[in-house]
Please model this.
Amino acid sequence: KTKEKEQGESIEIIGMNSRLLYVNEEFEKIEKQISIYANKSDIKWAKKISPTNSQTKKNEIMIHACEFSSEKEIIEKIPLEKFDKILVLSSEEISSSVNDSQEDTDTLFKILKLIHLKKKNPDKYKYQILCEIQNPENEEIVKKIPESNFNYVLGNLIVAKILSMELINPGILQIYEQLLQKGGIDLDIKPLSSFTNQALEFQTILENLYKQKNWILIGYIDSNSQLILLNPKKDKIIKPEDKLIYLEESEYKIRKVKA
Model:
């Protein structure tokens, strides 16, 4: 499996929680090494996270301590200039009564420091930021963050939507299980130029990808607007520079870790 989109990108994860196991699994598929920076409280999760695959030197998890107490400490302990993308995971105390609002407060604190450092050193720091927000009530606050290269995911909202969809349309859950299970189906993105330099109708690409590779084309990312367009009209013309969004059978194999 080719991995053009991952090449040349250096990714950092700030914080640790129960979802890191699954984040790590996705990086294992592309043999990408993860650099993690977390405080003492979050590092407790390292003992709770067992590898899904036999770890190699290429994708070994590298964990570094950082309390994020000040911008000075962040600069001293994290080589931010080396990273293209940063994922900020919400804090999650093990067996704790910490609520979603408190978790988000910690996340927002880290994000604002990262953004401020980037604004102070725009020539040095070029990273994009992605974070997870647990409480939907905090979305309005997150939307006001003045940073173009920043995005977020509402974790609890996604779960709520899946549950409600299953209630309304029984059987939908099986689709999510197939998409999200380990070693099941991968969602991938590649520019049309990876296959041809000709502009083609969406239907033509869909049919050829399925016949030749057994991939299912579900949409594309417009190269001009960067909009994600799912299930467009069959006669929609896709340009070589547009990125295809498709599903394919995962080549990732689960290997049991010997005790």
User: Anything to note?
Assistant: The chain has nine helices and twelve strands.
